[in-house]
């Protein structure tokens, strides 16, 4: 139905790379080629929208999975296992016969030759010729000019990040249990989260749940309820993008859960043992072994690659300014979507935007392949609302203007998040873990760390 058998086509695409670099066309097999860089929210939606197009699609990612980032904090706090939120990309596009996936890191894009340059896991150079290119490389962390803070205050962007954070958090409790010095014990039991946006609020809520409800009866030398959990933000409120009513509710609930909230307060320095902050009461140095970064984001370096090649602007967060149809100005057949781009209407860096842009671009390319060269209607974002959890039974939601708090908002959050996971197995697995972890036993089924993980925490602090 789609031309040669899959294994022959795979070979053809790799050979196509060599062919293209010798100057021949990229449509040698008669079918055009679409390359999608990034198998995140935007990339997967673009691939899905091309499922029935008469085209060869290559979905290239430096990981082999599609990561559901909004639930990373639940991996970091032992609620979910990584596999539940990160299905293999091959599985995701398994039944899409015109699509192949490739594990490789894209390092350059030759716009003139229409070739994506990538490096396989064995350092093999793989050139991917394209007729249409969708770049959806996402974003990483921004430490506001202090990249050295990354080693002291890790953030969460990948499964590895979440696993490391889990070792850091649970390792700190293990080290507190055997600490002989009171001050050292207190330092292990102090957790500071920088950034009170949805991610910061959600992980703070779970740190509090761990300390207050999950761990207390399990330790003999320490009272985990004495753990100090601090949430700070330079903004004057928690959850800056949310309505004031929801911000106030969230702050009240977190404070009731024992969280110390410091607003109008920015991190000014940190090392392995401490974090220095400046707020309304002046400068304060807090001794805390665990700092978690949930503040700024920086667009994928691929935005810079495209900006340099086309002379297109990037904003302060490194996001590429794309045209209203998500095309990259001055780059024929190239579209960029998701967290790595900025649009004239300054859309937020959220999954819904990336997904809707992915679908839009996939459809646009399908039309182009059918010979439709008319100017498309600009991309229009449909805002379905936003939500964040506070604790195990608490959330806030703003769904199309309706503001909901508490248990009902929490149920809405559960429904939306579980439905957006890919695969029924993952959905049921996640639901099971939520019922088990959050509702009844308040247990955490995925708290695995070992000596290596805990040692890394200890060594890291000793080195400082
Ligand atoms: C901890 C956290 C919590 C979040 N919570 C929410 C939430 O509750 N609600 C919400 O709407 N949004 C949330 N977001 C934001 C949301 O996840 C992003 O907006 C969304 O993932 C953006 O989609 P994307 O396709 O642009 O990028 P991503 O989903 O990040 O995908 C980018 C993909 O590109 C790949 N890639 C990057 N560079 C290369 C390269 N050079 N070569 C090959 N592959 C590459 C990456 O491996 C990745 O798979 C959260 C984000 C984080 C980090």
Automatic annotation (TrEMBL):
TM segment ranges:
407-426
Q: What class of enzyme is it?
A: oxidoreductase
Q: Which domain of life is it from?
A: Bacteria
Domain called FAD/NAD(P)-binding: residue spans:
32-358
- Family matches, as InterPro entries: FAD/NAD-bd_sf (IPR036188), FAD/NAD-binding_dom (IPR023753), NDH-2 (IPR045024), NDH2-like_C (IPR054585)
**External alternative NADH-ubiquinone oxidoreductase-like C-terminal domain mapped to chain residues:** 384-440
As recorded in UniProt, its EC number(s) are: 1.6.5.9
The family annotation for this protein states: Belongs to the NADH dehydrogenase family.
Read off the PANTHER family from this record: EXTERNAL NADH-UBIQUINONE OXIDOREDUCTASE 1, MITOCHONDRIAL-RELATED, NADH DEHYDROGENASE
Question: What protein am I looking at?
Answer: NADH:ubiquinone reductase (non-electrogenic)
Q: Which source organism does the UniProt entry give? A: Pseudonocardia xishanensis
């Amino acid at each position: 139905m789609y031309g040669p058998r899959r294994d022959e086509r795979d070979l053809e695409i790799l050979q196509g790379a060599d062919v293209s670099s010798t100057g021949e066309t990229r449509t040698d097999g008669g079918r055009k080629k679409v390359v999608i860089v990034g198998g995140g929210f935007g990339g997967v939606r673009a691939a899905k929208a091309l499922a029935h197009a008469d085209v060869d699609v290559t979905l290239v990612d430096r990981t082999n999975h599609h990561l559901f980032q909004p639930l990373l904090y639940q991996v970091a706090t032992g609620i979910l296992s990584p596999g539940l939120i990160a299905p293999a990309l091959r599985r995701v596009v398994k039944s899409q016969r015109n699509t192949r996936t490739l594990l490789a890191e894209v390092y350059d894009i030759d716009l003139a030759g229409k070739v994506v340059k990538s490096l396989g896991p064995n350092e093999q150079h793989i050139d991917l010729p394209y007729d249409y290119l969708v770049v959806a490389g996402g974003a990483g962390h921004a430490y506001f000019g202090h990249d050295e803070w990354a080693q002291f205050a890790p953030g969460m962007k990948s499964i590895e990040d979440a696993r490391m954070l889990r070792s850091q958090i649970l390792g700190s409790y293990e080290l507190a249990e055997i600490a002989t010095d009171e001050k050292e014990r207190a330092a292990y039991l102090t957790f500071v989260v920088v950034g009170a946006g949805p991610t910061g609020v959600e992980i703070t809520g779970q740190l509090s749940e761990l300390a207050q409800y999950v761990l207390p009866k399990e330790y003999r030398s320490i009272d985990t309820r004495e753990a100090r959990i601090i949430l700070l933000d330079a903004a004057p409120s928690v959850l800056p993008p949310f309505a004031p009513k929801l911000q106030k509710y969230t702050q009240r609930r977190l404070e009731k859960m024992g969280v110390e909230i410091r607003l109008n307060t920015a991190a000014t320095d940190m090392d392995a043992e401490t974090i220095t902050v400046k707020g309304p009461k002046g400068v304060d140095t807090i001794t805390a072994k665990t700092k978690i970064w949930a503040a700024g984001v920086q667009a994928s370096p691929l935005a810079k690659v495209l900006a340099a090649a086309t002379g297109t602007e990037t904003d302060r967060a490194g996001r590429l300014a794309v045209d209203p149809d998500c095309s990259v100005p001055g780059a024929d057949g190239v579209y960029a979507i998701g967290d790595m781009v900025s649009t004239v209407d300054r859309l937020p860096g959220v999954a819904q935007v990336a997904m809707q842009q992915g679908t839009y671009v996939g459809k646009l390319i399908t039309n182009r392949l059918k010979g439709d060269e008319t100017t498309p209607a600009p991309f229009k974002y449909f805002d379905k609302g936003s939500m964040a959890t506070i604790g195990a039974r608490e959330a806030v939601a703003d769904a199309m203007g309706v503001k909901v708090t508490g248990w009902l908002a929490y149920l809405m959050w559960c429904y939306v998040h579980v439905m957006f996971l890919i695969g029924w197995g993952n959905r049921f697995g996640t639901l099971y873990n939520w019922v088990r972890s959050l509702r009844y036993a308040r247990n955490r089924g995925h708290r695995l760390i070992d000596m290596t993980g805990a040692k890394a925490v200890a060594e890291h602090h000793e080195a400082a």
